[in-house]
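Good morning N.,

You mentioned wanting to compare the apo and holo forms, so I went ahead and generated the holo version with MTE. This is what I fed in:
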Amino acid sequence: MHIRTPKDWELPESAVTSESLYHLSKRRDFLKALGITAVALGARQAMGATAGFPTKLNPAFHDAALKPTAYDAITSYNNFYEFGTGKDEPRELANRGWKTDPWTVEISGLVDTPIKIEVNDMIGKVGGIEQRVYRFRCVEAWSMVIPWDGFQLSKLLALAGPKADAKFVKFYTFNDPKSAPGQREGNLEYPYVEGLRLDEAMHELSFIATGIYGKPIPNQNGAPLRLVVPWKYGFKNIKSIVKIELTAKQPRGTWEAMQAREYGFYANVNPTVDHPRWSQASERVIGGGLGGRQRTLMFNGYDKQVASLYAGMDLKKFY
Ligand code: MTE
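and this is what came out, ligand included:
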């Protein structure tokens, strides 16, 4: 297999983010000088599915101690290699004519009823959307707190009905090199794919996001729908999903296929297992100011809810 070396993913976190943050803060100063606010920028951004708004916060999935990251930071500091490897590129490049409305998702493989469904119809069929506030932890050792709008993944899978022999769920991002410069360059193997065990996917925390802060999710964050599995590293949270396939065999994600030693199938946040090239013991809080570091929590703070999924597994080995 041809292994391409991604440009900034492969660098230690300290070397990467300082530069990106530098550009980010310069851009912020520039926009501030022009009097452009996050709201004005939001209006300029292309949007995905609009069904279901406004949403209500579901208090069962909100810890009042969490301080949500600013909307501007969530939507301008992104990893979306289809639109470039720089953190500030997706906001620009994913909003230059790439269409995320209308958008159809196929659910196929080991299911009773294979379906193809438009996202706004999907939102109606799963009973609407709600807001949940989750921690978000990238494998690069930075973190945010994000108010997502969307619905529980289990409700979507129920529409198709997984068969008894389905053990895994494989997700596919769109493949459209004409719209996505990163796909034209081939900076990764495309389409981007990811997978979960079926019981992980059915867990009540596993979520499909169609919004952020009560607004349709911007293109750069994975419009019109993306996966959010808050106890796993961010790369599992695949964006702009076009296909979901139920399988008997464990799927291999894009990053795992490229470098299995560094990006495992499980990718559960674990402060005691370092990335081969940097520590995972602590994380840089985006928007937390200089010195805004905090200790990383086991399963990203969701250990009570999810530890039982991994009972009997050596979490040092299956990372
Ligand atoms: N999904 C696709 N299709 N392409 C990507 O490059 N990057 C992943 C994940 N999902 C990625 C993706 C990584 S590495 C992270 S950390 C998160 O998306 C970033 O999500 P955010 O930009 O909304 O913070």
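The domain at 13-310 is CATH 3.90.420.10 (Sulfite Oxidase; Chain A, domain 2).

Happy to go through it together on a call whenever suits you.

Best,
F.
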